[in-house]
Amino acid sequence: MADDLSPLGSEIRRLIAATGPMTVAEYMRRCLTDPKHGYYMTRDPLGARGDFTTAPEISQMFGELIGLWLASVWRQMGSPDNVRLIELGPGRATMMLDVLRAVKVVEGFSTAIMLHFVEISPTLQEVQQRRLEPLGVPMLWHKTLEEVPGGPCLILANEFIDALPVHQAIRRGNAWYERVIELSDDDTLHFGMAYDALPHFEAALPRELRQSPEGSVFEWRSDRVALEVGRRVREQGAALILDYGHTDVALGESLQAVVGHAYTDPLAAPGEADLTAHVDFEAIAQIAESIGALIHGPIQQRDLLIELGIEQRAAMLKANASPEKAAEIDLALSRLTAAGTTGMGELFKALAIASPALGALPGFEKSR
Ligand code: SAH
User: Fold this and answer.
1) Using CA of residue 229, residue 235, residue 237, residue 243, what is the dihedral sign?
2) Which protein residues are within 6 Å of ligand 1, measured from CB?
């Protein structure tokens, strides 16, 4: 008996029955972005009533500080008259609204901005358009970063990369096999292993991960986004990538599914749950560096926010706030900067990728 009745679940079962096991990456891609039933395509999953929340949804301080970071970097770029401000996966556009409000006071910057949003979900694009168009800033939407025209650019990505499909390989004997999703005799989905080993996989792994124990799992993503970001910023530009993940190469599986702020089985209801996996920041840094961009960090998100002045910003906001509002600000500050499982401060990292000509970037000075 099938354990779920989601339309995408039936479709994936049909596909596997017809063409054989599906890689984890292909499964994730379909679950999140299938044009008809993909998780992001049909809903706005963010906020208290949604499935998960993100830093910009927690507090306006997050986007405001990112805005000031962008303005400083724009000045380091020589204050170009035209700059493309590109955001990958803008969600409800909350961060961009806070960014734009914060940079209004920076002379020349707001008027230099042309906004570009890379968004695959028609539902979220509609939300973004509704919230941003009243501002009167020129803006365009694209399905991929490759479609955005060239020129000086500033790129933002908050909790975008974690939603990109991840491949998994598992070590058996002396070889690595790609992990796949298969169908059991009773028509349920379960994890399995490709029949043939991945050729030369061990040799391509970072040295410290070779000879790993039996059953180890290694995750990786396509190079595409990191290459494209690096290529764009190396001439004149910078990118800020914020997400959860690890700063050094590591083994282990991190694929997870979330519905209504709670974890669930990633195979239980395809298309109905948010699927994510940790971001391998070292892999992104290496790819971008290999084509001539300069890397800053990765550092902990909390360190970036504190360097950029989140504590002072919270104190300022509290000075004019009611006691209830002041308590909210304190709570938001703690959620954004605290370590451990209650806060986003430690698991979340920040990586900047920039043109080597720019030198040190705000918030990352200590990481150099
Ligand atoms: N940055 C926002 C939203 C994060 S959710 C925030 O921090 O609140 C992930 C976002 O990326 C959503 O807007 C989702 O629709 C978009 N997205 C996911 N996969 C995508 C893909 N392959 N291409 C473009 N956008 C994608």
Assistant:
1) positive
2) 32-33, 40, 46, 54, 56-57, 89-91, 95, 118-121, 124, 158-160, 163-164
Average pLDDT of the residues in 289-298: 97
Domains by residue range for the chain, with CATH: 1-301+350-355 (3.40.50.12710)
Helix (H, G, I), strand (E, B) or coil at 300: strand
Distance 119 CA to ligand 1 centre (A): 6
pLDDT tens, 312-360? 999 999 999 999 999 999 999 999 999 887 788 789 999 999 999 999 9
Pairing of β 348-354 and β 237-246: antiparallel
Ligand 1 centroid distance, CA of 129 (Å): 15
Using most ligand atoms within 8 A of CB, pick from 26, 44, 52, 120 the residue to mutate for ligand 1.
120
Rounded distance between C-alpha atoms, residue 68 and residue 153, angstroms: 16
Which among 66, 130, 72 is positioned nearest to 96, based on CA atoms?
A: 66
Checking if the pLDDT of 3 tops 60, the result is: no
- Give me the percent of the chain exceeding a pLDDT of 90: 89
Whole-number pLDDT of residue 368: 61
Q: CA 109, 115, 116, 120 torsion: positive or negative?
A: positive
CB 155 within 8 A of CB 237: yes
Cα of 208 vs centre of ligand 1, distance in Å, is 32
Strand 262-264 relative to strand 256-259: parallel, antiparallel, unpaired? antiparallel
Q: Which mutation among 121, 229, 348 tests ligand 1's pocket best, with the greatest number of atoms within 8 A of CB?
A: 121
| Residue 262 confidence (pLDDT) | 92
- Is residue 49 a contact partner of residue 260, using CB atoms and an 8 Å limit? no
Largest CA distance in the chain: 66
* Predicted local confidence at residue 344, as pLDDT: 87
pLDDT at residue 4, as a whole number = 60
Measured in angstroms, how far is the CA atom of residue 163 from the centroid of ligand 1? 7
